[in-house]
Amino acid sequence: MNTCLWWKSIEMSSCNRSLRRTAPEGITKTISPPSISRVNGWSLPLHSFQLIAWTAYVYMTVVGFGLFIPLLPFLWRNITYAAIGLLFGFHLIVHITAVTIDPADSNVRHKENYGGIMPILDRAKHKHVIQNQFCHLCEVTVGVKAKHCSACNKCIADFDHHCKWLNNCVGSRNYWFFFSSVASAVLGIIFLVLVLLYIFIQYFVNPEELRTDPQFKNYPANVWLAFLPLYAVPISSLVLLSLAVITLLLNFVSLLLLGHLLLFHLYLMFRKLSTFDYMTQGRQKQSTNLQIKISIPLKSTIINIETGQADEQKKTFIDQVSCAKRQRSSLSTAVSSSMCLGFNRDLSQACLSLTNADSINQCYKSSNLLKPENEAVVDKKEQTASSSEDSLNLEPVSSSEILPGPSKLESLVVLYNTGMTQEKTTAEDLSKVIQNQNSAPTTSEAPNQSPLNS
Question: In this protein, which residues make up the domain named Palmitoyltransferase DHHC (predicted)?
């Protein structure tokens, strides 16, 4: 019964892995039946990458020790056997150790039902798998850097990453075995590449340097031997070169992948980071860059709007200044017109106040005023001028602010002084001034000063 349940749980594990990741708040997923936790890298199902890694290791070991290293000269052959043999042997030991070790948190490994069916995560109660260092799936308190692996379905102590090549998680318990496995694999591949390059060069330059083993004397020059010195297997030169090319390409690809991985972990050691920390910082940086990219156009739009508003305000201010200038100009013209209108109005009133008709005509003639046909017209002009004065709120203007007119009107200009508080000029005074002006000699054009203004 337990065996059937165990296999059934394994079959459903692929559908349940995504539920073990930390999910953001507000997201609900369909809960699948729980699965059991994987103990180590040997727990079924095995990953395809794990099978590829073991196949590549076996292939390089066979062709390296059985075909290419025996072709080296005697002295270099023994040195290469020792160096590459130690690296390949060391890699095998640490690789198996990294796969076999259980990297789970100590509280998880000491559970009574460890390896049994995991409980279902109720996201209605718990939005994350681990909250306040308590795992709601493992149902234990874990370390600060522990993370729940979705593939292994358990909390890993000091989680670094899940390695598909090992089919196991990498944590504090097996990290150094993982790192040693990668480093030994890189060194072993480098040594094997050097051997292959030497064989290629010697095959085209001096093939006799590769046929130093005594068993080659029994075969022609185009026949090569494999698995020396224990068991000689004749192969053609085409097979030898083909296997050398395939092995060299495989070594270059492996060196590219493993070399990059080794340099990356050396960088993490220097920065004192784990792979998980590095990935977390990368996501935060991407999120920050995205926010910056979004905020830059928004700021540009705000700046453009503010600039447009400033330009509009500036334009409005310029229009207001121009309007104010035009208003002042119009007001000055209106004031001048009103001043002239008031001046002519008062002169007309002074002329009309005379009793003698000849004196009235002489007054209008001397002041260059048109005699109205009737007094109604004069009253209408008075009303218009008065309304203009009232609408403009003009102040009285003194005679000193009015430009001098013709010489014949100077006496009348002196009499008209709106800025003074003196009494209004009478008809008798105006008549006297006109008579004095008529009796004055015509040759003299100098203005006569009125006694009223002295």
Answer: 130-281
Helix (H, G, I), strand (E, B) or coil at 140: strand
Estimate to the nearest angstrom the gap between the alpha carbon of 35 and the chain centroid.
42
Give me the residues paired with residue 236 across strands: 223
Rg of the chain, C-alpha, whole Å = 57
Q: Give the C-alpha separation, 305 to 181, whole Å.
A: 61
Q: How far apart are CA 98 and CA 53, in angstroms?
A: 14
Nearest Cα neighbor of 65 from 204, 205, 236, 188 is 188
**pTM for this entry:** 0.58
Joined tokens for residue 181: 């496995």
Q: What is the mean pLDDT of residues 415-441?
A: 54
DSSP 395: P
Residue with the larger pLDDT of the pair 390 and 199: 199
Active site residue: 163, 169, 351, 363, which one? 163
SS3 content of the chain, % helix, strand, coil (to 5): 60, 5, 30
φ/ψ (deg, to 5) at 246: -60, -45
Rounded Cα–Cα distance for residues 321 and 323 (Å):
5
Is 105:155 a contact under the CB 8 Å cutoff?
A: yes
Q: Write the Ramachandran bin of 272: left for phi over 0, alpha for psi from -120 to 50, otherwise beta.
A: left
Question: Which H/E stretch holds residue 358?
Answer: helix 357-366
DSSP state of 64: I
> Which is more confidently placed, 107 or 425?
107
d(CA 429, CA 425): 7
> What is d(CA 13, CA 361) in angstroms, rounded to the nearest whole number?
126
Instruction: Please name the residues in contact with 90: beta carbons below 8 A apart, sequence gap of 6 or more.
Output: 180, 184
Across the strands, what pairs with 155? 148
The stretch 11-31 carries a mean pLDDT of 39
Question: Is 163 among the catalytic positions?
Answer: yes
CA 372 to chain centre: 84
All residues at 6 or more sequence positions from 416 whose CB lies less than 8 Å from its CB, including other chains: 343, 346, 347, 399, 425
Give strand pairing partners of 163: 168
Give which of 128, 244, 134, 132 is closest to 196, Cα–Cα.
244
pLDDT of residue 420: 44
CA distance 323 to 126: 70
> How many Å apart are CA 23 and CA 131, to the nearest integer?
12
Q: Give the start-to-end residue ranges of the domains of the chain.
A: 2-286, 337-441
3-state secondary structure of 319: helix
**Which single residue is written with the structure tokens 């209605």?**
124
User: Which residue carries 């000491």 as its tokens?
Assistant: 110
Residue 391 vs residues 204, 320, 377, 385: alpha-carbon distances, Å? 117, 23, 21, 10
